[in-house]
UniProtKB/TrEMBL annotation:
Protein name: RecA family profile 1 domain-containing protein
The organism's taxonomic lineage, starting at the top: Eukaryota, Fungi, Dikarya, Ascomycota, Pezizomycotina
Organism: Ophiocordyceps unilateralis
A GO CC annotation given for this chain: Rad51C-XRCC3 complex
Pfam families listed in its UniProt record: Rad51
Biased composition (Polar residues): 110-123
Length: 542
């Protein structure tokens, strides 16, 4: 911080003397203070974040004042060089021009902060009418949309389709570019090229109509005026063709990058993406996937410090959600993220001991010392609950207790109602567990927990089930030999996939079960909805 006074001699050092002393110990220059985030500086110097924000704001204000003073000095010098009393008029004119430019800039900022009506009504298509109808017309702008599902469910296929569809003109897209941020691998350019070659709806060629117009003009070639008009029409048609070629979706309109860790991800989203959105007409920001870096950075172990890690992860998730929402609203873009899932265990599998206090302890205070504490296991529990039984055996008996139980031990509050438990409520916002008749439905939970669920506006779950072929009938040869037992077993033939809207501000949620979901398949051209077929639901298995 020794360069602060050399850069800003008029900076009020006395008001920030305490901060300067600690900042100088860390050898932070003025450029470091302006480039780094106040939270990162606070971690290094252990100073309050609010004080650092005020300190940095004062430096920025001092720099702005020095720039304004230099501009006024330059204007005065120009007026003196021009001679006469015209110098003052030139300075006044320059000041008026600066005020006009500032007013225009303020108007532009106010307009950019306000969401455009076209952005609120327009949607990004999935290139399939039935899928768009289930999504309320497509993916909305100005909010965060999440696609959650297990591996192979089709999350990346949806994201790639949106990267191409956003480049189309309304109503399928917005005619803008896309930003693809990947955390696990690079952009699948071969798959995008395959979709471009196979999907005819991405192209709008009107060459036949142009040829018909040319044939109609051949009859009037004798007159010079008609020839001139024909040349002008041909030039206009060529320009239209060139503009149409530019508007067609292409890989050059997709800005892709890869983030290997959480630090680079935060830096790209906070600094580089806003600059890219300001310079290029971007309508879609994709993050694939949001949980990958958090799984690597934060470990949910039983070691000491687990609570602090989860608290830090929750704070980072809240910060990430606020940053993505700010980008979506300020620039009018659609933010779409992919999320992974984890297995969910039923309550009957988890070891939950039930503590029962002998009611005879309420008769008198003396009898409370001889009351027994009984630990029971719930019926139907799994072998994993044996650890609870060992812990119960380690409890001291009633005779070994040094202190008697309090008289109010029998007046303990009742257990939490089932309707208020997270295990019961998460079925309505995770996408799994809402159908009580789905015996073959393996319950899953989107990663990053309840904290991340409160940061998104729309959640779409992708389900997949394996389809098995009927078993081959056994023959006499199979009865003699036991080696062909695997050949007669049912074999997996393909996968079936469904799309389910869990919650969204612009579309109704899907009903319970797979019948209310929209089934789709992955083809060369992208995603395609298929007709509902309930006859094969019994043949599907997890």
């Amino acid at each position: 911080m020794t360069d602060l006074l050399s850069i800003l001699p008029s900076f009020p050092v006395g008001t920030f003397s305490d901060l300067l002393a600690k900042v100088e110990k860390k050898d932070l220059s003025t450029a470091d203070l302006l480039a780094q985030h106040p939270v990162d500086i606070a971690k290094q110097t252990r100073l309050p974040v609010l004080d650092l924000r005020r300190f940095i704001a004062a430096i920025q204000a001092s720099l702005a004042d020095d720039v304004a003073v230099e501009e006024l000095d330059l204007g005065a010098r120009r007026g003196r060089d021009g001679g006469g009393g015209g110098g003052g008029d030139d300075i006044e004119e320059e000041e008026e021009e600066e005020e006009e430019e500032r007013q225009k800039a303020k108007k532009m900022e106010s307009q950019s902060m306000k969401t455009s009506p076209a952005w609120t009504t327009s949607r990004i298509s999935t290139l399939d009418d039935r899928l768009d109808a289930a999504l309320g017309g497509g993916i909305p702008h100005g909010c965060i949309t999440e696609f959650a599902g297990e591996s192979g469910a089709g999350k990346t296929q949806f994201l790639l389709s949106l990267c191409l569809a956003v480049q189309l003109e309304p109503p399928r897209g917005t005619g803008r570019q896309a930003v693809y941020i990947s955390t696990e691998g690079g952009l699948a350019t071969q798959r995008l090229t395959q979709m471009l070659d196979a999907n005819k709806s991405l192209f709008h060629d009107d060459d036949d109509d142009d040829d018909d117009d040319d044939d109609d003009d051949d009859e009037h070639d004798d007159d010079e005026d008609e020839k001139k008009k024909k040349k002008q029409k041909q030039k206009q048609k060529q320009k239209q063709k060139e503009t149409k070629k530019k508007k067609k979706p292409w890989l050059d309109n997709i800005h892709a990058t890869v983030t290997q860790d959480l630090e680079s991800q935060e830096h790209i989203l906070e600094y580089q993406v806003p600059v890219l959105l300001a310079r290029h007409p971007v309508g879609l920001v994709v993050l694939d996937s949001v949980a990958s870096n958090y799984r690597a950075e934060f470990h949910r172990s039983a070691a000491v410090g687990r609570g602090a890690d989860m608290a830090a992860r929750g704070a980072d998730l809240v910060r990430l959600g606020a940053l993505l929402r700010l980008l979506a609203r300020r620039h009018g873009v659609a933010v779409v993220v992919a999320n992974q899932v984890a297995d969910r265990f039923h309550e009957s599998v988890l070891p939950t001991p039930v503590v029962v206090v002998d009611p005879s302890s309420s008769s008198s205070s003396s009898s409370s010392s001889s009351s027994s504490v009984v630990v029971r296991q719930p019926q139907g529990s799994s072998p994993l609950a044996s650890r609870t039984a060992v812990a119960a055996a380690a409890l001291p008996s009633s005779s070994s207790l040094s202190m008697p139980l309090p008289p109010s031990a029998d007046a303990r509050p009742a257990a939490t109602p089932v309707a208020l438990r997270l295990h019961h409520q998460q079925r309505w916002f995770t996408g799994w567990g809402d159908d009580p008749h789905a015996l073959l439905d393996p319950a899953k939970t989107p990663s990053l927990g309840l904290v991340w669920s409160t940061q998104i506006a729309c959640r779409v779950v992708l389900l997949k089930r394996s389809v098995y072929a009927p078993p081959r009938p056994r023959t006499l040869h199979d009865a003699d030999s036991d080696d062909d037992a695997e050949d007669t077993a049912p074999a997996q033939t393909t996968w079936r996939r469904w799309m389910k809207v869990v919650f969204a501000p612009h579309a109704p949620a899907s009903g319970q079960g797979l019948d209310a979901c929209t089934e789709f398949e992955v083809t060369n051209r992208g995603l395609k909805a298929v007709e509902a077929d309930t006859t094969h639901l019994a043949a599907t298995a997890s």
